Amino acid sequence: MLKRLETPEDNWKFSAGDLKERERWDDYMKYYEEAINKTSTENAPWYIVPADDKGIARYIVAKTIWEEMQKLTDITEPELDPKVASNIELYKNQLK
Length: 96
Known about the structure:
The chain is built from 6 helices and no strands. It has 96 residues and is mainly α. It folds into 2 domains: 1-44, no CATH class; 47-96, no CATH class.
């Protein structure tokens, strides 16, 4: 919050109400951890991604999705409808 106040272009993100809520930080963290621990399962796990750096957060999300997708071996691409396949050249010409 202090960084928001010290950086003029981020001042709009600050709310005086945040100061009051900050007093409850320990409570928020306790219930956050409880919710994650009670709802994350082997088949539907939670992944905790730090969000203080958007670029890093996006990288972690993409990497996690990629890693999980690599575990799936029974996925196949759908087959092209024969009618669409027989008209590919027509569709290309229409788009040109």
